[in-house]
Structures are given as structure tokens and as C-alpha cells.
Design goal:
Number of strands: 2
Main location: membrane
CATH class of one domain: Mainly Alpha
Helix content: over 70%
Number of helices: 18
CATH architecture of one domain: Alpha Horseshoe
Strand content: under 5%
Pfam families: TPR_7, Zn_ribbon_LapB
GO molecular function, one term: iron ion binding
Radius of gyration: 34 Å
Order of helices and strands: HHHHHHHHHHHHHHHHHHEE
Shape: elongated
Keywords: Cell inner membrane, Cell membrane, Iron, Membrane, Metal-binding, Repeat, TPR repeat, Transmembrane, Transmembrane helix
Strand order of the largest sheet: 1-2
Mean pLDDT: 81
Protein name: Lipopolysaccharide assembly protein B
Low-confidence stretches: 30-37
CATH superfamily of one domain: Tetratricopeptide repeat domain
Length: 381
């Protein structure tokens, strides 16, 4: 049978034409996709700048589907999920990045850090701790240690917090001397609750030795000595506070007055409190001075002296308590109204987050900051 070359002559041009058309279609499709991906990316960026997180997430998902190998888009998407509070999806994105074999070491560490932040924001402290430990030796080690420190503080694991703080200080990440003294004071409180006063006294001794500028150590040491019946030693500790940490004297003013009365050393303490009052009027110092006054008139004179130097509704209320009004029936309701109005002014306020409380905190329960509560009341700020 003879081969018909006519079909071959017709087939070659047709095959060539079909191949050319197919290549043009593929090129056109590639151009469409390459144009759509940047558009989706820039659209997501525009939504992000306008604080439209939901629309930005939709745009970035579209961009990731168009180019699944782009790590930066995954990071942007994961961070958006975390900021939006969608922690499960953020975890899935960052775990997907960690599961990729083609990702480099830098991006792998970055994904591990992002995953730890996801767990931390979600409140999964145990998983966050495990993820942060994997960042040792990476460029994120310093940030990981700071996050671990926050975890141990929140869980009140003071031994672990102390170890991490010492590592940070050794790495020259800042001074943690005061914070380490706080940890020792916290451990001393636990030791006291467990009845181990010897350990508590040793810890407090270390705290005041390493951070004498911290009022808490001296106050805790004074309270421990007073509990043991050593009023003279308790007073000596507060006198050290007045020398080493004078900014905290208002916090110890009432204890000073009480110890002065117990030891019969009112004159000595009066001199100390009067010197503090001259440096700057304080509600607590004024109350302590009034308590140590020999009679009611002398106490009222202390309040009046404070008012002459600095107006105060709290002090005015205390002064009025010893004054007799012309109408006796008005005495009780007027006094009650003034006390109700002045009570909020007696609170302490965190300088970092504004959280207010009736008692003074060394560690803010709102923002977890240390030493953010001034030793003065709201009215004095």
C-alpha cells in the first residue's frame, strides 16, 4: 500500500498552528493570573491601610491561592488573622509554613515566632512556652525570652522568671535588678504563708541588698520583723526605706506611726515624717503626722498646714470631722457627703494603663507592669 504524502503535507502545518494557538492561550492565561495576583495583593494592602481587616483577609486569600509559594503573603495573612482574633486560622497558616520543606531557616524561625505569638494571644500558655523554647539560638531569642518572662510572671512561677531575667541581663537586654528583687519578695510571701520565716527573711535580705532603692523589700522586711515581735527591728527597716527609697515613704507612713507608738520613739519618727512633708505634702504622711500629734487640736493643725500648702478634698474632709457646724443637724449628712466624694480620690492609679484600685500594687493586675503605681493617691497626681 502506497503512503499518501498528502495527509502529511496537510498535517504538519495544522499541528504547528494548533501548537502556536495553545502556546498563545497559555501565555494569555499566565498574563491574566500574573496581573490578578498583584492586584489582589495591592487591594489587600489598601484595605489594611484603611483598617478594613475582613476585606484585606479576603484579598490576601485570593493572592495566596494565585501564588501559594509566596511566604510573605502567608505571613501577612497569619498576622491579620491574629489581629482579628481568629487564632485557629492564624495557627494553621503558620503551621503550614513550618511544614513546607522549601522554606529557608530565616523564614522558618519567623514562622515559629509567629506561631508562638498566636498561642500567647490565644491564652494557650503551655503551647506558647513550648514554641518559644524552639527559638533558642535564633534571631528571635531575645523576643522569645521576654515573652517567656511574661508567661512565667502571669503563672506566678517566680523561679523560672528569675532564671529568664538573669539570662536577659547577661545578654545585655536591659537591667532586671529591680524585677529580680520583686521576684524574691514574691517568693518570701509564699515562704511566709508556708511558715518558713527563715527562708522569707533570707530572701528579703537579698532583695534589699541587691535593690535598696525598691521600697517593697524594706516594707516586707519590716512587716516580717513586726510579725516576729521585733518592733525595733521593724522600725529600723522603715528608717532604711526613708534613706534608700524616700519616694516610697508615703506607703510606709502609717506603719511608721504605729511602730513609733509601740516603741515609744514618736519624736524620732515625727522628725523623719516632718522632713518628708517639707519635701512635698502627702496625704498619707499628713495622716501619720496627725496620728502622732499629742492632741486633737494639734492633729487638726497638721491638716490645716497641708491645706495651706496644697488644696485637698480628702484632707479638708478630715479637718471638717473635728469642726462643729452651726447647725448640728447638718454635721452628719455634710460629713457623709464629703467622705463619699473624696473616697475615689484616695485610690491609686497605674501610670501605664490607668487601672485604679483602693490598694497599692507593685505588679499592675491590668497591664502586668511593674512599679507603675505611684506612691501617691489619685488626688495628688
Amino acid at each position: 500500500m502506497d503512503l499518501d504524502l498528502t495527509w502529511l503535507l496537510w498535517g504538519l502545518p495544522i499541528a504547528f498552528a494548533l501548537g502556536w494557538v495553545a502556546s498563545r492561550l497559555d501565555l494569555r492565561q499566565w498574563r491574566i493570573e500574573s496581573r490578578q495576583t498583584p492586584k489582589a495583593y495591592f487591594r489587600g494592602l489598601n484595605h489594611l491601610l484603611n483598617e478594613q481587616q475582613d476585606q484585606a483577609i479576603d484579598a490576601f486569600i485570593e493572592a495566596v491561592q494565585g501564588d501559594p509559594d509566596t511566604a510573605e503573603l502567608h505571613f501577612a495573612l497569619g498576622n491579620l488573622f491574629r489581629r482579628r482574633g481568629d487564632y485557629d486560622r492564624a495557627v494553621r497558616v503558620h503551621e503550614h509554613l513550618l511544614g513546607r520543606a522549601d522554606i529557608n531557616r530565616k523564614d522558618r524561625d519567623r514562622a515559629q515566632h509567629a506561631l508562638a505569638l498566636d498561642f500567647l494571644k490565644a491564652g494557650l500558655l503551655d503551647r506558647a512556652e513550648a514554641a518559644l523554647h524552639k527559638l533558642e539560638g535564633s534571631a528571635f531569642e531575645g523576643e522569645a525570652l521576654l515573652a517567656l518572662l511574661a508567661i512565667y510572671e502571669r503563672s506566678r512561677d517566680w523561679r523560672q522568671a528569675q532564671a529568664v531575667a538573669q539570662r536577659l541581663e547577661a545578654a545585655e537586654q536591659g537591667s532586671f535588678t529591680t524585677r529580680l528583687a520583686h521576684y524574691q519578695c514574691e517568693e518570701a510571701e509564699l515562704a511566709q504563708k508556708n511558715g518558713d520565716t527563715a527562708l522569707a527573711q533570707r530572701l528579703l535580705g537579698d532583695a534589699v541588698q541587691h535593690a535598696p532603692q525598691l521600697p517593697r523589700g524594706w516594707m516586707a522586711l519590716s512587716a516580717l520583723k513586726a510579725q516576729q515581735g521585733d518592733a525595733a527591728g521593724a522600725l529600723a527597716a522603715l528608717k532604711q526605706l526613708a534613706q534608700q527609697a524616700p519616694q516610697g515613704l508615703p506607703l510606709a507612713a502609717h506603719a511608721l506611726a504605729e511602730l513609733a507608738q509601740q516603741t515609744g520613739r514618736q519624736g524620732e519618727v515625727l522628725v523623719l515624717l516632718q522632713a518628708a512633708h517639707e519635701r512635698g505634702p502627702s496625704l498619707d504622711v499628713t495622716e501619720a503626722l496627725a496620728r502622732l500629734s499629742p492632741d486633737a487640736e494639734s492633729a487638726r493643725a497638721r491638716y490645716l498646714n497641708h491645706l495651706e500648702r496644697e488644696p485637698s478634698l480628702v484632707v479638708a474632709t478630715q479637718w471638717l470631722a473635728g469642726e462643729t457646724l452651726s447647725d448640728p443637724r447638718a454635721q452628719k449628712p455634710v460629713q457623709s457627703a464629703l467622705e463619699q466624694a473624696s473616697n475615689p480620690l484616695k485610690r491609686y492609679r497605674c501610670a501605664a494603663c490607668g487601672f485604679e484600685a483602693r490598694q497599692h500594687f507593685w505588679h499592675c493586675p491590668g497591664c502586668q507592669s511593674w512599679d507603675s503605681y505611684p506612691a501617691r493617691r489619685v488626688e495628688e497626681l
